Amino acid sequence: MATIYQEFIVEADAAHVWDALRDFNAVHTRLAPGFLTACTIDAEGGRILTFANGLVAREALVGLDDAHRRLAYTVTGGKAAHHHASAQVFEEGAGRSRFVWITDVLPDKMAAYIAPMMVQGGAAMKAALEASQKSSSGSPT
After folding, report:
1. By three-state DSSP, how is residue 20 classified?
2. What letters, b where the CB count within 10 A reaches 16 and e where it falls short, cover 16-55?
3. What pLDDT score does 141 carry?
4. What is the rounded CA–CA span in Å between residue 130 and residue 141?
5. Of 12, 8, 44, 28, nearest to 129 (Cα)?
6. What is the secondary structure of 97-132 as a DSSP string?
7. Splitting the chain (141 residues) into consecutive groups of 10 residues, what average pLDDT does each group show?
8. What are the distances in angstroms from CA 111 to CA 4, 98, 101?
9. Nearest residue to 80 (alpha-carbon basis) of 111, 56, 102
10. How far is 68 from 45, CA to CA, in rounded Å?
11. Of 18, 20, 19, 13, which Cα lies nearest the Cα of 95?
12. Cα–chain-centroid distance for residue 72?
């Protein structure tokens, strides 16, 4: 099984970052706008995401842990035999957070496709979270 790690520092409070991450159904507007263009909720409570590159994926929420600021989800259907991911937010001092996103995928060759998307997604998240932190604190953007 291939494991892909994406980790980055966000110039925003951990509580702010966690609030956006845990809003599972608003990922396209609060967490990764531009990288994701749409999110619809399906009848089973999962979400169907549309990515800027045209990819469509269905994800189901596996767990939401407020105490540890950790969210886990799985991709259902699609080309991967297994696709499970988690994201967690850690405090990195005043006004800073560390965002850790880990994906496990089978077959291993899927990692070559998913890893670059995670880099793009991470950049979109960092930009959106930092911009929303500035606008919520009243600082100029």
Report:
1. helix
2. bbbbbbbebeebbebbbbebbeebeeeeeebbebebeeee
3. 43
4. 9
5. 12
6. EEEEEEEEEESGGGHHHHHHHHHHHHHHHHHHHHHH
7. 97 97 97 97 92 96 98 94 97 96 97 96 98 77 43
8. 7, 23, 14
9. 111
10. 23
11. 13
12. 10
Alpha carbon distances (Å) from 17 to 7, 27, 112: 14, 12, 28
d(CA 89, CA 15): 9
Give, for 14, the enclosing helix (H) or strand (E): helix 14-21
Residue 11 CB coordination number (10 Å): 13
pTM: 0.92
- The confidence score (pLDDT) of residue 49 equals 97
The conformation of residue 134, written as its DSSP 8-state character, comes to: H
Q: Could you tell me the two tokens for 56?
A: 């469509």
